[in-house]
Each structure stands twice: as structure tokens, then as C-alpha cells.
Sequence to fold (258 residues):
Amino acid sequence: MDLGLTDKVALVTGGSSGIGLAIAAKLAAEGCKVAIASRQQAKLDAVAAEVPGARVFAADVRDPAQVARVVNQVIADFGRIDIVVSNAGTHLPGRMEDVEIEALTRHLETKVIGPWALAKAVAPHMRRQGGGRFIVIIGQAGKVPQANGIASTISNAAQHAFVKSLSDDLARDKILVNAVCPSRIKSPLTDGLTLYNEVFLGRSLEQQESHWGAEVPLGRWGTPEDIANAVAFLASDRAGFIVGANIDVDGGHQRSIF
Fold:
């Protein structure tokens, strides 16, 4: 299926590894001109070799000035931005008594302020050019509150509210805002996860899968490429009537019905 993404300009934050890197590579393979933003220059230098033609930018999404700088530089280099994928962020584990205020603040700055600053910087450009796509990657904790992941539950739920509200605001300008929600995806992030609050020291991810995979109706974990495929679809004209949606890509693991 031709997604019609050739020569579209895409900016992916948190794109130096895992899901973000897979998204950047997929969009490039579909013909997009890709810009990748991440905090670590060393990782970005390696990524530049993995995604042919990609431009890389070192930036911390917690700083709105750095976000605006990247957006402006991408537009200066490519002339426009058609697709933005807000992927920067991570999981902050722990119960309330385990999470320090400073860590929570940094987490919220990354996952709430970061996408806000990104949308605020890019929306005027997309309005002027007649439309675009803004896609947020949101972890499952936003739909499945959990005591041992309360910080991620709060930040991810805020992201869902942000996506729905922003989609209402920008849809009439033909800027389609949606979310993709991964769960049970093999990535560098999952290497540090625990199973039912227990740390399985010395066990490989494959060993952990022997139990976790049983909870996924497909019977296996997904890959970052599974998320990238969903993002590419939402970025295309094939998804031209999907607005304000959050799409689970999890092999059926998510049990919520809405």
C-alpha cells in the first residue's frame, strides 16, 4: 500500500533508540525527509548512519526554547514540517513514597510540557501550510492506573487529555492529532521493567516473556516496528478521517474497552 508519504517532512523526538528510532526509519523508508531530535549527541551520531538522509538535532524537550529552536531549524532546512511524532519520554516506576518530587517534576516536564511546547511551536507553521499530523506515543499506564507506576499513570493520562483537547483545537486547520499506545513491546525501555513488582535479576527478557507473553492474546511481544507501522498509517492520507484517537498497538493486551 502506497501511503503517499514521499517527500513529506517528519520530525521525531526521542528518536535515537527503540520505538523512536523505528518510527524514524519507517518514515524514511516510506520516502519522508526525516529529522530526529534527542538529548544525547553520541546516540544521534550513530543514528545518522542508520537512517539514510536523516538530520539530527540535540535538544531536551523539557526546555521550550530548545524545542522551538529545533522546529525552526527543521523548517529552515526543509521548508516545512508535515509530521511530528512526540515520542520523548520514559517510564518512572515506584509507588508514591518512592518517587521524589524532583524526579516527578522532570518526568512531567518531559512527557507533558515537552509535547505542549512541541505543538505550540509547530502548529502555526502547519496552519500556514494547510495542515499536518501530530502524533503522540503514550504508554499503557495512562489507561491502566497502577500504584507502582503512579507517576507514569499521571503523565500518560495527561497526554491522553492533551491529545483529545488539541485535536479539537486543530482539526479545523486540517492538523490531525492522534495517539499510538504501545504495550508489551520489546525495546530498551523494557529491559528495566519489573514483573508484578518483583525484580527478576539475571533473567533475560525472553525468560520474562514466558509469563508476560501469556497475557497477550497474540501470545508474543511486539516490536518497535509494529508501533512504527501504526504511526506511518496515521501520518498518511489513508487516516484522513481519524482525529483525536488513541490506538492500542499491543497484541490485544489492553483490556479497557474505551
